[in-house]
């Protein structure tokens, strides 16, 4: 696995996106965005594989914990050549992932609340992988979750009928 990390800034609530150009990639080769990184052993990882599947995982102490295991997406490229824009929205416990500006899924996890950001590639076998990342943009996000909806209470409806 090859990983490239930024050392600054430390992010908590943000939206990040990057364009991925896939020149050589097949099968279970993987690429994606790592975020809320405190070390290479403690981070979240949004992964896309070259079979058109997505995954969100937490890496803690070097151990992988799938938060959402492999999910097929029609927005994920199948092999190469291809181009795709990856997006990650992380606010509080909630994380949302996007491909080509299309929402894919949302997951909640309270473990990591801030950290740096980066990208990675992984080859599943002995074949070469050629993937490049460009146009990474990071935006701060200010978001307040809507309050839970009130449960309506049942009130008796007044009538004109006198009580006996």
Write a brief caption for the model.
The chain has no helices and 11 strands. A hairpin with a 2-residue loop joins strand 3 and strand 4 (42-49).
Describe the structure.
With 164 residues, the chain is mainly β. It is built from no helices and eleven strands. The strands form two sheets. A six-stranded antiparallel β-sheet has the order 1-10-3-4-5-6, with no helix packed on it. The model has no long low-confidence stretch (mean pLDDT 91).
Count of beta strands: 11
**Series of H and E elements:** EEEEEEEEEEE
Question: What's the shape?
Answer: globular
The biggest sheet, with number of strands, parallel, antiparallel or mixed sense and barrel status, is: 6 strands, antiparallel
Put simply, the count of helices is 0
Helix content: under 10%
Mean pLDDT: 91
Radius of gyration: 21 Å
Considering the chains and any ligands shown, give keywords for the structure.
mainly beta; 164 residues; 56% strand; globular; six-stranded antiparallel sheet
């Amino acid at each position: 696995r090859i990983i490239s990390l930024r050392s600054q800034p430390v992010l908590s609530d943000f939206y990040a996106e990057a364009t991925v150009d896939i020149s050589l990639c097949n099968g279970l080769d993987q690429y994606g965005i790592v975020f809320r990184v405190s070390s290479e052993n403690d981070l979240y990882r949004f992964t896309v594989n070259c079979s058109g599947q997505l995954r969100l995982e937490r890496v803690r102490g070097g151990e992988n914990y799938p938060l959402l295991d492999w999910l097929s997406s029609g927005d994920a490229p199948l092999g190469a050549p291809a181009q795709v824009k990856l997006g990650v929205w992380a606010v509080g416990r909630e994380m949302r992932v996007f491909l080509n500006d299309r929402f894919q899924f949302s997951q909640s996890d309270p473990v990591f609340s801030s950290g740096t950001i980066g990208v990675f590639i992984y080859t599943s076998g002995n074949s070469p992988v050629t993937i490049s990342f460009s146009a990474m943009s990071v935006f701060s996000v200010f978001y307040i979750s809507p309050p839970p909806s009130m449960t309506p209470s049942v009130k008796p409806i007044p009538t004109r009928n006198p009580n006996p």
